[in-house]
């Protein structure tokens, strides 16, 4: 049979007879041929013109030193409690030392693969020469590979996989005498510098023991739910029998063949005295099916179940971080082949509670198509404790139409989208600016509709964003009182009051507050400072909002969000990872004022928009938010220990939820104070169970009441003069009903608040005019005289003067309908 010449590793063309000549030269030069070669093969040597110098040169050209890369090893992501979230691997392998591998499996592999392993020096001369003579006609050299040669082959294949060198893989797996010679040359060189046990350890960690199991440790876990250290004789024999043909002897797909192969290995172990007859009889009697305890090892975040989206966030964190490699491909190699142990911030109990409460509000694949997402952050550390949504992680299918790999909690950079309009939750940043610029919660602001022309806005950082803003309205059912305190406007989420507040300030200060607290658009861009932003038109993410509000819970300290706490490499060495960076971005006194106001939002008072988020026995603060037409609904709330954002809506469009049937119930409104607030309340109650009750710091009088000033004493002055004095002092003035007093008519009888009372500048002071001194009542008539006639019709005389007019108006929330679902 004719055959084409085979190329050598140096690029020379090698003929079949030269290959055999090289083999003999190789054996002689290596000092392993000895008498055996001389006695058995001298005729062949003579026929080839002896071991020629040319053949020896070709042999010398072959590489003799094997570069051994670290074998690919699975990486694992762990929760804060050390439990496994997910594993990642290109090859499912867990590298262990020889002392962590059962002696039984070591013996089984040596028995079936290379009985002379501890005697030869890398190759089996007798086997190689016999195979060479049998196969020279076909130019092939099969069989006779020692464990060392098999290890060399696996190392070359692995090096090609790691480097992505398909040519190297092809050369390492080609069926040719040239490959066998290269392996033999490298095996001899390897044994000259590496101890036998180290070679055996390397082989047991690199060899394939199943369709997707590499190394004996991963195989032991997969097939038997045990470790390599605890493998029994029967288990060891089964694994040792798989390596020659993992698919053919796969015990799952081909159990009968696998059992036959196991028994062959057991017989070989008995023949070579690795086991006794009794041990053989016991092992061979065990049905293969009784041995198996198959454990799946899913690859990637799909195995993380309810924590899949948190897992995806961690992966994106690694792949986006330049400290993990020069480019994304290198970082991906590190994750899938680097054997990393990645410790994260995920709190298992909180994660489970988050998923259960989100899906209790809006079930997975709810016919409404409404989605819900929740992110939970630890104030003062930035640790992401939970991240859930009401979708299954994966690709959309006919049976799972809502399945997605898009993380609704985060932006584009971490596998999410562009974010969602935040609605009134964004008012918090206006409130911060209000207090930072010297205002107070008691300041009175207009709450009725008016126009806000372009030229009335201050946007110093981006004047081009000035615009007429005339379309803002209050939510249906919110009273349109002419004036309202900032505290009440916050508690009831009055849109027009907040537009009024923002119009008195620089929009850039409001946006700056949000960005100092870490908030960005979902696409990673800067927030837009247009007037409509006051009511939440910027598209942001649940994680961004949760972390921004965590700044308030932490007394004004912003911490960058963090999911990874530590990483160890394959050798157990700590790898430097980015840590959360914490900075004081808002003065504590301002934060205390904001927290005071947002606690009123989460209070049982009628009209408080967050009434459904009240935590029994524990203080809480937060803000509701609803985008136009109920397209998105939010509740972002916090305690001193935990900050959490809940969003609901449609991720693919701004679709109104008004009238939607959600979880089987039709809803007239879907506001932040409904589903999101209730979901937040249930989750936070569970998440903080057993934790101490912590109080917020008390707000200062300055933040609540402002720089209070005394009411001037205008009693006795003419009304018009008193009115001018009060107005010049910064107060609004109203007139009450005249009453009799010691002062002449037209003078001031009293004021409310009274003279000298310390009050917030700008409040309304009611002047009570005097109607003059009271007249002396007439003496009673004689007993027998008729009483003076009244005015008839049961009006009781009609002369009685009324008391002073009331100086307060009904509470605005008294106007709400009973079924109003607060915003």
Automatic annotation (TrEMBL):
Keywords: Carboxypeptidase, Cell shape, Cell wall biogenesis/degradation, Glycosyltransferase, Hydrolase, Multifunctional enzyme, Peptidoglycan synthesis, Protease, Transferase. The keyword Membrane does not apply. GO terms for molecular function: penicillin binding; peptidoglycan glycosyltransferase activity; serine-type D-Ala-D-Ala carboxypeptidase activity. It catalyses: [GlcNAc-(1->4)-Mur2Ac(oyl-L-Ala-gamma-D-Glu-L-Lys-D-Ala-D-Ala)](n)-di-trans,octa-cis-undecaprenyl diphosphate + beta-D-GlcNAc-(1->4)-Mur2Ac(oyl-L-Ala-gamma-D-Glu-L-Lys-D-Ala-D-Ala)-di-trans,octa-cis-undecaprenyl diphosphate = [GlcNAc-(1->4)-Mur2Ac(oyl-L-Ala-gamma-D-Glu-L-Lys-D-Ala-D-Ala)](n+1)-di-trans,octa-cis-undecaprenyl diphosphate + di-trans,octa-cis-undecaprenyl diphosphate + H(+); Preferential cleavage: (Ac)2-L-Lys-D-Ala-|-D-Ala. Also transpeptidation of peptidyl-alanyl moieties that are N-acyl substituents of D-alanine. GO terms for biological process: cell wall organization; peptidoglycan biosynthetic process; proteolysis; regulation of cell shape. Gene3D superfamilies: 3.30.10.20, Biosynthetic peptidoglycan transglycosylase-like (1.10.3810.10), DD-peptidase/beta-lactamase superfamily (3.40.710.10). Residues 789-804 have a biased composition (Gly residues). Residues 706-771 form the PASTA domain. Pfam families: PASTA (PF03793), Transgly (PF00912), Transpeptidase (PF00905). Residues 776-785 have a biased composition (Pro residues). Residues 766-823 are annotated as: Disordered. GO terms for cellular component: outer membrane-bounded periplasmic space. In the C-terminal section; belongs to the transpeptidase family. This is PASTA domain-containing protein. It comes from Georgenia yuyongxinii.
């Amino acid at each position: 049979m004719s055959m084409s010449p085979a190329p050598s590793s140096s690029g020379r063309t090698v003929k079949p007879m030269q290959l055999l000549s090289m083999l003999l030269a190789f054996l002689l030069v290596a000092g392993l041929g000895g008498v055996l070669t001389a006695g058995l093969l001298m005729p062949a040597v003579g026929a080839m013109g002896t071991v020629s110098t040319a053949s020896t040169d070709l042999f010398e050209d072959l590489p003799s030193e094997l570069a051994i890369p670290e074998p690919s090893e699975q990486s694992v992501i762990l929760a804060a409690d050390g439990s496994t979230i997910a594993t990642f691997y290109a090859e499912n392998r867990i590298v262990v030392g020889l002392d962590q591998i059962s002696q039984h499996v070591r013996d089984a592999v040596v028995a079936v693969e290379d009985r002379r392993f501890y005697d030869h020096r890398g190759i089996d001369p007798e086997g190689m020469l016999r195979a060479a003579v049998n196969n020279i006609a076909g130019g092939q050299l099969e069989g006779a590979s020692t464990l060392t040669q098999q290890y060399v082959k696996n190392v070359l294949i692995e090096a090609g996989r790691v480097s992505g060198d398909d040519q190297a893989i092809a050369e390492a797996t080609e069926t040719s005498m040239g490959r066998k010679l290269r392996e033999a040359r490298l095996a001899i060189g390897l044994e000259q510098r590496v101890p036998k046990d180290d070679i055996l350890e390397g082989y047991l960690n690199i060899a394939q023991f199943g369709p997707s199991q590499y190394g004996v440790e991963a195989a032991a876990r997969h097939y038997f739910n045990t470790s390599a250290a605890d493998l029994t004789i029967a288990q060891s024999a089964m694994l040792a029998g798989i390596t020659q043909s993992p698919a053919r002897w796969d015990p799952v797909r081909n159990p009968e063949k696998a059992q036959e192969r196991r028994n062959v290995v057991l017989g070989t172990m008995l023949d070579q005295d690795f086991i006794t007859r009794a041990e053989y009889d016991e092992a061979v009697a065990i049905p293969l099916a009784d041995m198996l305890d198959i454990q799946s090892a899913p690859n990637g975040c799909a195995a993380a179940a309810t924590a899949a989206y948190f897992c995806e966030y961690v992966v994106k964190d690694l792949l986006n971080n330049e400290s993990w490699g020069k480019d994304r491909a290198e970082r991906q190699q590190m994750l899938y082949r680097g054997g990393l142990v990645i410790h994260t911030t995920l709190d298992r109990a909180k994660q489970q509670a988050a998923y259960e409460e989100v899906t209790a509000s809006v079930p997975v694949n709810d016919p409404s198509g409404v989605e819900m997402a929740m992110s939970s952050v630890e104030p003062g550390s930035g640790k992401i404790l939970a991240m859930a949504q009401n979708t299954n992680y994966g690709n959309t299918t006919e049976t799972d139409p809502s399945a997605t790999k898009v993380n609704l909690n985060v932006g584009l950079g971490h596998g999410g989208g562009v974010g969602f309009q935040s609605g009134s939750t964004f008012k918090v940043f206006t409130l911060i600016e209000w207090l930072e610029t010297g205002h107070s919660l008691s300041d009175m602001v207009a709450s009725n509709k008016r126009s806000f022309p372009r030229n009335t806005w201050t946007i110093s950082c981006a004047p081009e964003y000035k615009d007429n803003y005339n379309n803002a309205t209050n939510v249906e059912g919110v009273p349109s009182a002419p004036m309202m305190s900032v505290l009440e406007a916050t508690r009831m989420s009055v849109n027009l009051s907040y537009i009024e507040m923002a119009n008195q300030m620089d929009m850039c200060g409001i946006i700056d507050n949000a960005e100092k607290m870490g908030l960005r658009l979902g696409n990673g861009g800067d927030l837009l400072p247009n007037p409509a932003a006051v009511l939440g038109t910027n598209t942001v993410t649940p994680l961004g909002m949760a972390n921004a509000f965590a700044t308030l819970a932490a007394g004004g300290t912003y911490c960058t969000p963090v999911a990874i706490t530590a990483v160890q490499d394959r050798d157990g060495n700590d790898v430097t990872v980015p840590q959360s960076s914490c900075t004081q971005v808002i003065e504590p006194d301002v934060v205390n004022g904001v927290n005071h106001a947002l606690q009123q939002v989460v209070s049982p008072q009628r009209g408080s928009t967050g009434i459904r988020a009240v935590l029994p026995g524990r203080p809480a603060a937060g803000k509701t938010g609803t985008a136009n037409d109920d397209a998105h609904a939010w509740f972002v709330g916090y305690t001193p220990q935990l900050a959490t954002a809940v969003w609901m809506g449609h991720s693919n469009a701004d679709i109104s939820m008004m009238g939607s049937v959600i979880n089987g119930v039709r809803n007239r409104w879907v506001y932040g104070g409904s589903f999101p607030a209730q979901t937040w309340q249930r989750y936070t109650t569970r998440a903080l169970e057993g934790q101490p009750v912590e109080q917020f710091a008390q707000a200062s009088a300055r933040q609540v009441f402002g720089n209070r000033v005394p009411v001037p004493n205008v009693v006795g002055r003419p009304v018009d003069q008193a009115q001018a004095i009060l107005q010049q002092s910064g107060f609004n003035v109203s007139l009450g009903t005249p009453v009799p007093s010691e002062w002449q008519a037209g003078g001031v009888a009293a004021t409310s608040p009274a003279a000298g009372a310390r009050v917030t500048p700008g409040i309304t002071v009611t002047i009570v005019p005097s109607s003059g001194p009271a007249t002396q009542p007439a003496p009673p008539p004689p007993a027998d005289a008729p009483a003076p006639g009244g005015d008839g019709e049961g009006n009781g005389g009609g002369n009685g003067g009324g008391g002073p007019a009331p100086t307060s108006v009904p509470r605005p929330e008294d106007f709400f309908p009973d079924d109003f679902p607060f915003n």
